[in-house]
Amino acid sequence: MTGRERIALTMRHRVPDRVPVMCQLSIGHYNLNGGYRPHEIWYETEAFADAALKLARRYRFDGILVALAGRPANYLAQAVSITSGDDGQWIQWRNGDRTFLPWDDMAVHHPADESRPVRADFDTFDPDSDIHHIDDYLGHIWNALYHIQSLPGKDYGGPLEPGRIPGYLFGAIDIVRAKAPDLSVHGSVYSPLTHFFELFGYEPALIGLRTDPGRAHAVLDRLTGGVIAWSLALLEHGADALDLSSAFVGAPFLSRSQYQKFVIPYEKRVNEAIKAAGGICYTHTCGRIGDRLDLMAETGTLGIDTLDPPPLGNADLAQAKREFGERFFFKGNMNSVELLRMTTPEQVREHAAGRIRDGMPGAGYILSTACSVAPHVEPWKLEMLAPLAEELGRYKSPDAV
After folding, report:
1. What CATH number does residue 29 fall under?
2. Is residue 9 in a domain?
3. pLDDT over 50 at 357, yes or no
4. pTM of this prediction?
5. I want to staple 200 with a disulfide (CB 3.0 to 4.6 A). Which of 103, 205, 227, 241 is the partner?
């Protein structure tokens, strides 16, 4: 059974030959272990795709999350210089901007024009007219979708429509899909509320939810259309599933009441559109979600990713399986911080074995770290996971593919 088949069965609550293994890797982990320098991982589509494939093969993962969108061809030709230091690399761009790329983390961009607005102003934002210019704000471009600077002469701002999405954004998923037909390839999508937070900044956005919910709903409504367009386009490019990153909606950051008002209606629309297109979507939410799995079910999502255990979260995998195992497939629950601190194979084995034991009954579980694999997690720890799944996670009567 291939990894693609294994995960496909698991996401559909059917029984594979064994528990699948698929971890999301942090950008810092790619930088340190992918065979490329940070500026290549971040700005060269082929380099990132190759690193993702190499590490998936090395760790014998059954699937790959394509976490970065593709970049324009020869994008680094805009760089005047790339220098390296003890902490990372600096890129000086022709337009005067600078970018710092740590050896073990994501890029940080510094615009030459410090007066350029990083975030939109919630109080003056017009949902009807200003939505067409949301990518004028560096914070939204950088953190929410494109992860690159705007190109001179190009206007890709505004709500995404299938015909308006620049083709280069699909470069990484196209390469991975073509070179890994045996693996489950997942696309990365940000939820409407994540876009909302990145557009206005987290503190102003939270305040806006309380002070002017009408404006907040109007903005979320428009943002949802872009999320749906991006999701459907990824499915057209061969994504087997979509990871909907809704990272900042756990407790106590967002209350249950706020979740009901500002998350459910919009994520439900996204999930309904994906299902109508024949796709599968699961929700990536960090932190404490043990009190809102019932609410997450109302969004129509088919699976839950991370399931952070204490102290980062409050999810108990065995309990989640008992209460929602027929409703969701689950991915995660390995303690990412503890994995970083483990020093012996016995510790890794005991921790992973507990997740396999709790997650595998009735299928519907993918062995994974709760969130991204931290940059400095040693590769040997991840290399242990697939063999453990083969040893401890085999099903007696797998379904036919």
Report:
1. 3.20.20.210
2. yes
3. yes
4. 0.94
5. 205
